Amino acid sequence: MNHTILITGGAGFIGSHLTRLFVTKYPEYKIVILDDLTYAGNLENLKDIENNSNYTFIKGDITNAELIKKIFEEFKFTAVLHCAAESHVDRSISEPLAFVTTNVVGTVILLQAAKENWKHDTTNKLFYHISTDEVYGSLGAEGYFTEDTSYDPRSPYSASKASSDHFVRAFYHTYKLPVIISNCSNNYGPFHFPEKLIPLCINNILNEQPLPLYGKGENIRDWLFVEDHVKAIDVIFHKGKTGETYNIGGHNEWTNIAIIKELCRQMDIKMGKDKGTSEKLITFVKDRAGHDMRYAIDATKLKNELGWKPSLQFEEGLSKTIDWYLDNTEWLQHVTSGNYRKYYETQYHKR
Ligand code: NAD
Ligand code: DAU
After folding, report:
1. Residue numbers of the domain that contains 232
2. Is the pTM of this model over 0.70?
Protein backbone atom coordinates (compact mmCIF):
# COMPACT_ATOMS: atom_id res chain seq x y z
CA MET A 1 0.00 0.00 0.00
CA ASN A 2 1.50 3.36 -0.96
CA HIS A 3 1.04 6.59 0.98
CA THR A 4 1.36 10.36 0.78
CA ILE A 5 1.64 11.36 4.43
CA LEU A 6 1.27 14.74 6.06
CA ILE A 7 3.40 14.88 9.22
CA THR A 8 2.54 17.95 11.27
CA GLY A 9 5.15 19.24 13.71
CA GLY A 10 7.88 17.30 11.88
CA ALA A 11 10.59 19.78 12.89
CA GLY A 12 9.99 19.19 16.61
CA PHE A 13 11.50 16.57 18.90
CA ILE A 14 9.30 13.52 18.25
CA GLY A 15 8.17 14.70 14.81
CA SER A 16 11.74 14.82 13.50
CA HIS A 17 12.47 11.26 14.65
CA LEU A 18 9.18 10.10 13.13
CA THR A 19 9.97 11.87 9.85
CA ARG A 20 13.48 10.36 9.71
CA LEU A 21 12.06 6.87 10.28
CA PHE A 22 9.35 7.16 7.62
CA VAL A 23 11.51 8.95 5.01
CA THR A 24 14.31 6.37 5.25
CA LYS A 25 12.29 3.20 5.88
CA TYR A 26 9.61 3.88 3.27
CA PRO A 27 11.28 5.47 0.21
CA GLU A 28 8.11 4.68 -1.77
CA TYR A 29 6.03 6.96 0.49
CA LYS A 30 5.87 10.69 -0.09
CA ILE A 31 6.37 12.55 3.20
CA VAL A 32 5.24 16.17 3.53
CA ILE A 33 6.12 18.07 6.71
CA LEU A 34 3.99 20.98 7.83
CA ASP A 35 5.57 22.92 10.67
CA ASP A 36 5.24 26.55 11.69
CA LEU A 37 8.74 26.56 13.20
CA THR A 38 7.68 27.95 16.56
CA TYR A 39 10.43 28.20 19.18
CA ALA A 40 10.26 24.36 19.40
CA GLY A 41 10.61 23.69 15.67
CA ASN A 42 14.13 23.39 14.34
CA LEU A 43 15.05 22.45 10.78
CA GLU A 44 18.51 21.47 11.99
CA ASN A 45 16.72 18.40 13.42
CA LEU A 46 16.04 17.27 9.84
CA LYS A 47 19.30 18.27 8.14
CA ASP A 48 20.39 14.70 7.37
CA ILE A 49 17.25 13.92 5.37
CA GLU A 50 16.35 17.27 3.83
CA ASN A 51 17.68 16.25 0.40
CA ASN A 52 15.79 12.95 0.22
CA SER A 53 13.55 12.92 -2.84
CA ASN A 54 10.49 11.70 -0.90
CA TYR A 55 10.68 14.59 1.62
CA THR A 56 8.98 17.99 1.29
CA PHE A 57 8.95 20.73 3.92
CA ILE A 58 6.24 23.38 4.17
CA LYS A 59 6.38 26.16 6.72
CA GLY A 60 2.88 26.86 7.94
CA ASP A 61 0.43 26.94 10.80
CA ILE A 62 -2.07 24.12 11.39
CA THR A 63 -4.63 26.73 12.45
CA ASN A 64 -4.51 28.29 8.96
CA ALA A 65 -7.58 26.58 7.45
CA GLU A 66 -6.97 28.04 3.95
CA LEU A 67 -3.45 26.67 3.84
CA ILE A 68 -4.56 23.26 5.11
CA LYS A 69 -7.28 23.10 2.46
CA LYS A 70 -4.78 24.07 -0.23
CA ILE A 71 -2.16 21.48 0.69
CA PHE A 72 -4.76 18.69 1.02
CA GLU A 73 -5.91 19.53 -2.52
CA GLU A 74 -2.38 19.73 -3.86
CA PHE A 75 -0.88 16.60 -2.28
CA LYS A 76 -3.98 14.38 -1.90
CA PHE A 77 -2.78 12.99 1.43
CA THR A 78 -3.73 9.44 2.28
CA ALA A 79 -2.70 9.82 5.91
CA VAL A 80 -1.95 12.40 8.58
CA LEU A 81 0.52 11.82 11.42
CA HIS A 82 -0.43 14.67 13.71
CA CYS A 83 2.44 15.67 16.02
CA ALA A 84 2.23 19.48 15.97
CA ALA A 85 1.39 20.87 19.38
CA GLU A 86 2.40 23.20 22.11
CA SER A 87 4.06 20.58 24.30
CA HIS A 88 5.54 22.14 27.44
CA VAL A 89 3.47 22.01 30.65
CA ASP A 90 5.18 25.02 32.26
CA ARG A 91 4.42 27.20 29.23
CA SER A 92 0.78 26.07 29.37
CA ILE A 93 0.58 27.40 32.92
CA SER A 94 1.64 30.88 31.83
CA GLU A 95 0.00 30.90 28.36
CA PRO A 96 -3.03 28.56 28.32
CA LEU A 97 -4.73 30.13 25.29
CA ALA A 98 -1.86 29.30 22.95
CA PHE A 99 -2.47 25.64 23.86
CA VAL A 100 -6.18 25.87 23.06
CA THR A 101 -5.42 27.48 19.71
CA THR A 102 -2.80 25.04 18.48
CA ASN A 103 -3.76 21.82 20.24
CA VAL A 104 -7.55 22.06 20.05
CA VAL A 105 -8.42 24.42 17.18
CA GLY A 106 -5.48 23.26 15.04
CA THR A 107 -6.46 19.61 15.47
CA VAL A 108 -10.10 20.30 14.54
CA ILE A 109 -9.01 22.19 11.41
CA LEU A 110 -6.93 19.19 10.33
CA LEU A 111 -9.79 16.79 11.12
CA GLN A 112 -12.18 18.92 9.01
CA ALA A 113 -9.79 18.88 6.06
CA ALA A 114 -9.33 15.10 6.28
CA LYS A 115 -13.11 14.59 6.53
CA GLU A 116 -13.77 16.82 3.52
CA ASN A 117 -11.06 15.25 1.36
CA TRP A 118 -11.80 11.65 2.24
CA LYS A 119 -15.60 11.84 2.29
CA HIS A 120 -16.10 9.79 -0.90
CA ASP A 121 -13.54 7.12 -0.12
CA THR A 122 -11.87 6.28 3.16
CA THR A 123 -10.01 3.23 1.81
CA ASN A 124 -6.34 3.29 2.83
CA LYS A 125 -6.83 6.57 4.71
CA LEU A 126 -5.82 7.28 8.30
CA PHE A 127 -5.77 10.23 10.67
CA TYR A 128 -3.23 9.25 13.35
CA HIS A 129 -3.28 11.53 16.40
CA ILE A 130 -0.18 11.52 18.62
CA SER A 131 -1.17 12.14 22.21
CA THR A 132 0.08 11.88 25.75
CA ASP A 133 -0.42 9.88 28.96
CA GLU A 134 -1.03 13.19 30.77
CA VAL A 135 -4.70 13.12 29.66
CA TYR A 136 -5.28 10.40 32.27
CA GLY A 137 -4.29 12.67 35.17
CA SER A 138 -2.10 11.78 38.12
CA LEU A 139 -1.56 8.39 39.77
CA GLY A 140 -0.89 7.60 43.42
CA ALA A 141 1.73 5.04 44.42
CA GLU A 142 -0.21 2.15 42.82
CA GLY A 143 -1.77 1.37 39.47
CA TYR A 144 -1.23 2.10 35.78
CA PHE A 145 -2.94 4.00 32.98
CA THR A 146 -4.72 1.64 30.59
CA GLU A 147 -6.66 2.60 27.46
CA ASP A 148 -9.83 2.43 29.59
CA THR A 149 -8.66 4.84 32.30
CA SER A 150 -10.99 7.85 32.53
CA TYR A 151 -9.61 11.16 31.38
CA ASP A 152 -8.69 13.53 34.22
CA PRO A 153 -6.40 16.25 32.81
CA ARG A 154 -5.04 18.68 35.38
CA SER A 155 -2.82 21.16 33.50
CA PRO A 156 -3.83 23.48 30.64
CA TYR A 157 -1.51 21.38 28.42
CA SER A 158 -3.13 18.07 29.31
CA ALA A 159 -6.62 19.62 29.15
CA SER A 160 -5.89 20.79 25.59
CA LYS A 161 -4.54 17.37 24.58
CA ALA A 162 -7.53 15.63 26.18
CA SER A 163 -9.87 17.94 24.30
CA SER A 164 -8.10 17.18 21.00
CA ASP A 165 -8.35 13.43 21.71
CA HIS A 166 -12.11 13.84 22.28
CA PHE A 167 -12.49 15.68 18.96
CA VAL A 168 -10.58 12.93 17.14
CA ARG A 169 -12.93 10.29 18.60
CA ALA A 170 -15.96 12.49 17.86
CA PHE A 171 -14.96 12.61 14.17
CA TYR A 172 -14.64 8.81 14.17
CA HIS A 173 -18.09 8.28 15.65
CA THR A 174 -19.92 11.12 13.91
CA TYR A 175 -18.35 11.14 10.45
CA LYS A 176 -16.70 7.68 10.33
CA LEU A 177 -13.33 9.34 9.80
CA PRO A 178 -10.67 6.59 10.09
CA VAL A 179 -8.63 7.57 13.13
CA ILE A 180 -6.16 6.08 15.58
CA ILE A 181 -4.85 7.67 18.79
CA SER A 182 -1.76 6.71 20.75
CA ASN A 183 -1.01 8.05 24.23
CA CYS A 184 2.65 7.91 25.16
CA SER A 185 4.67 8.48 28.31
CA ASN A 186 7.68 10.84 28.68
CA ASN A 187 10.15 10.65 25.81
CA TYR A 188 13.86 11.41 25.96
CA GLY A 189 16.70 11.29 23.43
CA PRO A 190 18.55 13.36 20.80
CA PHE A 191 17.04 16.68 19.59
CA HIS A 192 15.05 17.15 22.82
CA PHE A 193 14.53 20.87 23.41
CA PRO A 194 16.44 22.01 26.53
CA GLU A 195 13.38 23.34 28.33
CA LYS A 196 12.43 19.75 29.28
CA LEU A 197 13.96 18.13 32.38
CA ILE A 198 16.62 15.83 30.89
CA PRO A 199 18.11 18.08 28.16
CA LEU A 200 17.83 21.11 30.45
CA CYS A 201 19.94 19.33 33.07
CA ILE A 202 22.44 18.05 30.46
CA ASN A 203 22.90 21.63 29.23
CA ASN A 204 23.21 22.97 32.78
CA ILE A 205 25.78 20.32 33.76
CA LEU A 206 27.83 21.26 30.67
CA ASN A 207 27.65 24.91 31.76
CA GLU A 208 28.05 24.20 35.50
CA GLN A 209 24.66 25.76 36.23
CA PRO A 210 22.14 24.70 38.92
CA LEU A 211 19.92 21.68 38.18
CA PRO A 212 16.42 22.89 39.22
CA LEU A 213 14.24 20.16 40.70
CA TYR A 214 10.63 21.09 41.42
CA GLY A 215 9.39 20.45 44.96
CA LYS A 216 11.17 17.50 46.55
CA GLY A 217 12.06 15.85 43.25
CA GLU A 218 9.81 12.93 44.16
CA ASN A 219 7.41 13.07 41.20
CA ILE A 220 7.55 10.01 39.00
CA ARG A 221 7.62 9.75 35.22
CA ASP A 222 7.74 6.68 32.93
CA TRP A 223 10.56 7.32 30.43
CA LEU A 224 10.78 5.97 26.89
CA PHE A 225 13.60 6.47 24.35
CA VAL A 226 12.18 8.57 21.51
CA GLU A 227 13.28 6.10 18.80
CA ASP A 228 11.24 3.41 20.54
CA HIS A 229 8.21 5.74 20.54
CA VAL A 230 8.41 6.35 16.79
CA LYS A 231 8.91 2.63 16.14
CA ALA A 232 5.69 2.03 18.08
CA ILE A 233 3.92 4.67 15.95
CA ASP A 234 5.19 2.87 12.82
CA VAL A 235 3.77 -0.46 14.04
CA ILE A 236 0.44 1.09 15.05
CA PHE A 237 0.18 3.06 11.78
CA HIS A 238 0.61 -0.11 9.71
CA LYS A 239 -1.07 -2.73 11.89
CA GLY A 240 -3.35 -0.86 14.29
CA LYS A 241 -7.14 -1.01 14.13
CA THR A 242 -9.09 2.05 13.06
CA GLY A 243 -11.01 3.67 15.92
CA GLU A 244 -8.66 2.22 18.54
CA THR A 245 -6.42 3.81 21.14
CA TYR A 246 -3.00 2.39 22.05
CA ASN A 247 -0.95 3.29 25.11
CA ILE A 248 2.82 3.43 24.60
CA GLY A 249 5.22 3.33 27.55
CA GLY A 250 8.56 2.12 28.74
CA HIS A 251 7.64 0.34 32.01
CA ASN A 252 10.43 2.50 33.31
CA GLU A 253 9.46 4.64 36.29
CA TRP A 254 11.92 7.03 37.90
CA THR A 255 11.59 9.78 40.46
CA ASN A 256 13.00 13.05 39.12
CA ILE A 257 15.72 13.08 41.76
CA ALA A 258 16.83 9.53 40.89
CA ILE A 259 16.97 10.30 37.20
CA ILE A 260 19.02 13.45 37.69
CA LYS A 261 21.42 11.63 40.04
CA GLU A 262 21.90 8.93 37.37
CA LEU A 263 22.44 11.66 34.76
CA CYS A 264 25.05 13.34 37.02
CA ARG A 265 26.80 10.00 37.63
CA GLN A 266 27.05 9.19 33.92
CA MET A 267 28.09 12.72 32.93
CA ASP A 268 30.85 12.87 35.55
CA ILE A 269 32.34 9.67 34.10
CA LYS A 270 31.97 10.80 30.46
CA MET A 271 33.41 14.27 31.19
CA GLY A 272 36.28 12.94 33.33
CA LYS A 273 35.06 14.77 36.43
CA ASP A 274 35.38 13.57 40.04
CA LYS A 275 32.49 11.41 41.27
CA GLY A 276 29.82 13.64 42.87
CA THR A 277 30.82 16.86 41.04
CA SER A 278 27.60 17.36 39.02
CA GLU A 279 25.30 16.21 41.84
CA LYS A 280 26.38 19.25 43.82
CA LEU A 281 24.52 21.36 41.24
CA ILE A 282 21.11 19.90 42.22
CA THR A 283 18.90 22.69 43.59
CA PHE A 284 15.35 22.27 44.87
CA VAL A 285 13.06 25.03 43.60
CA LYS A 286 9.39 26.04 43.94
CA ASP A 287 7.09 23.25 42.75
CA ARG A 288 5.18 23.38 39.45
CA ALA A 289 1.55 24.46 40.03
CA GLY A 290 -0.75 21.42 39.95
CA HIS A 291 2.28 19.14 39.51
CA ASP A 292 1.06 15.62 38.62
CA MET A 293 2.60 13.11 41.03
CA ARG A 294 3.04 9.97 38.98
CA TYR A 295 2.53 8.71 35.43
CA ALA A 296 2.86 5.02 34.54
CA ILE A 297 1.63 3.37 31.37
CA ASP A 298 0.32 -0.15 30.93
CA ALA A 299 1.28 -0.96 27.32
CA THR A 300 0.01 -4.56 27.41
CA LYS A 301 -2.51 -4.01 24.60
CA LEU A 302 0.20 -2.81 22.22
CA LYS A 303 2.48 -5.72 23.16
CA ASN A 304 -0.19 -8.42 22.94
CA GLU A 305 -2.05 -7.18 19.86
CA LEU A 306 0.74 -5.68 17.76
CA GLY A 307 3.93 -7.17 19.22
CA TRP A 308 5.70 -3.90 20.15
CA LYS A 309 7.96 -3.54 23.17
CA PRO A 310 10.73 -1.06 24.03
CA SER A 311 14.17 -2.06 22.74
CA LEU A 312 16.42 -0.12 25.14
CA GLN A 313 17.11 -0.28 28.86
CA PHE A 314 16.96 3.20 30.39
CA GLU A 315 20.62 3.48 31.48
CA GLU A 316 21.66 2.56 27.93
CA GLY A 317 19.22 5.04 26.37
CA LEU A 318 20.38 7.78 28.74
CA SER A 319 24.01 7.04 27.89
CA LYS A 320 23.23 7.28 24.14
CA THR A 321 21.40 10.54 24.77
CA ILE A 322 24.27 12.11 26.73
CA ASP A 323 26.76 11.00 24.04
CA TRP A 324 24.58 12.66 21.40
CA TYR A 325 24.54 15.98 23.30
CA LEU A 326 28.31 15.79 23.91
CA ASP A 327 28.86 15.16 20.18
CA ASN A 328 26.40 17.87 19.11
CA THR A 329 27.37 20.88 21.17
CA GLU A 330 26.85 23.07 18.10
CA TRP A 331 23.16 22.03 17.93
CA LEU A 332 22.79 22.83 21.63
CA GLN A 333 24.62 26.13 21.23
CA HIS A 334 22.38 27.12 18.28
CA VAL A 335 19.26 26.26 20.28
CA THR A 336 20.27 28.06 23.44
CA SER A 337 21.49 31.14 21.54
CA GLY A 338 18.44 31.21 19.26
CA ASN A 339 20.61 30.91 16.13
CA TYR A 340 18.69 27.85 14.93
CA ARG A 341 15.87 30.17 13.95
CA LYS A 342 18.06 31.67 11.22
CA TYR A 343 18.38 28.29 9.50
CA TYR A 344 15.05 28.59 7.75
CA GLU A 345 16.03 31.89 6.16
CA THR A 346 19.33 30.58 4.82
CA GLN A 347 18.04 27.16 3.77
CA TYR A 348 14.58 28.05 2.49
CA HIS A 349 14.85 31.70 1.47
CA LYS A 350 13.83 30.74 -2.07
CA ARG A 351 10.42 29.36 -1.01
P1 NAD B 1 7.85 19.76 20.37
O2 NAD B 1 7.39 20.93 21.16
O3 NAD B 1 9.28 19.37 20.41
O4 NAD B 1 7.48 19.98 18.82
C5 NAD B 1 6.26 20.52 18.40
C6 NAD B 1 6.39 20.91 16.94
O7 NAD B 1 5.14 21.43 16.50
C8 NAD B 1 7.45 22.01 16.68
O9 NAD B 1 8.23 21.68 15.56
C10 NAD B 1 6.61 23.25 16.42
O11 NAD B 1 7.25 24.17 15.55
C12 NAD B 1 5.37 22.63 15.79
N13 NAD B 1 4.18 23.49 15.96
C14 NAD B 1 3.73 24.05 17.11
N15 NAD B 1 2.62 24.78 16.87
C16 NAD B 1 2.38 24.67 15.53
C17 NAD B 1 1.36 25.18 14.67
N18 NAD B 1 0.39 25.96 15.14
N19 NAD B 1 1.39 24.85 13.37
C20 NAD B 1 2.38 24.06 12.87
N21 NAD B 1 3.38 23.56 13.64
C22 NAD B 1 3.37 23.86 14.96
O23 NAD B 1 6.90 18.57 20.81
P24 NAD B 1 7.23 17.01 20.97
O25 NAD B 1 7.78 16.76 22.31
O26 NAD B 1 7.95 16.54 19.77
O27 NAD B 1 5.74 16.42 20.95
C28 NAD B 1 5.12 16.05 19.72
C29 NAD B 1 3.74 15.51 20.03
O30 NAD B 1 3.86 14.36 20.86
C31 NAD B 1 2.84 16.48 20.77
O32 NAD B 1 1.54 16.35 20.26
C33 NAD B 1 2.90 16.03 22.22
O34 NAD B 1 1.72 16.34 22.88
C35 NAD B 1 3.08 14.54 22.04
N36 NAD B 1 3.80 13.83 23.12
C37 NAD B 1 5.02 14.27 23.55
C38 NAD B 1 5.71 13.55 24.53
C39 NAD B 1 7.06 13.96 25.02
O40 NAD B 1 7.55 13.39 26.00
N41 NAD B 1 7.73 14.91 24.39
C42 NAD B 1 5.13 12.38 25.07
C43 NAD B 1 3.86 11.98 24.60
C44 NAD B 1 3.22 12.70 23.62
O1 DAU C 1 4.10 12.35 29.89
C2 DAU C 1 4.25 12.83 28.59
C3 DAU C 1 4.59 14.30 28.63
O4 DAU C 1 5.94 14.41 29.07
C5 DAU C 1 4.40 15.00 27.29
O6 DAU C 1 3.05 14.94 26.93
C7 DAU C 1 4.88 16.46 27.37
O8 DAU C 1 4.78 17.06 26.09
C9 DAU C 1 6.32 16.45 27.83
O10 DAU C 1 6.77 17.79 27.97
C11 DAU C 1 6.47 15.71 29.16
O12 DAU C 1 5.82 16.45 30.23
P13 DAU C 1 6.48 16.58 31.68
O14 DAU C 1 5.92 17.76 32.35
O15 DAU C 1 6.44 15.28 32.40
O16 DAU C 1 8.03 16.83 31.23
P17 DAU C 1 9.14 17.83 31.81
O18 DAU C 1 10.43 17.44 31.20
O19 DAU C 1 8.71 19.25 31.71
O20 DAU C 1 9.19 17.45 33.35
C21 DAU C 1 9.51 16.14 33.78
C22 DAU C 1 9.45 16.13 35.30
O23 DAU C 1 10.51 16.95 35.80
C24 DAU C 1 8.17 16.72 35.86
O25 DAU C 1 7.82 16.02 37.05
C26 DAU C 1 8.55 18.16 36.20
C27 DAU C 1 10.00 18.04 36.59
N28 DAU C 1 10.87 19.20 36.30
C29 DAU C 1 10.82 19.74 35.04
C30 DAU C 1 11.60 20.83 34.71
C31 DAU C 1 11.54 21.44 33.33
C32 DAU C 1 11.72 19.69 37.25
O33 DAU C 1 11.77 19.19 38.39
N34 DAU C 1 12.50 20.75 36.93
C35 DAU C 1 12.47 21.36 35.71
O36 DAU C 1 13.21 22.35 35.49
Report:
1. 4-188+224-252+291-312
2. yes
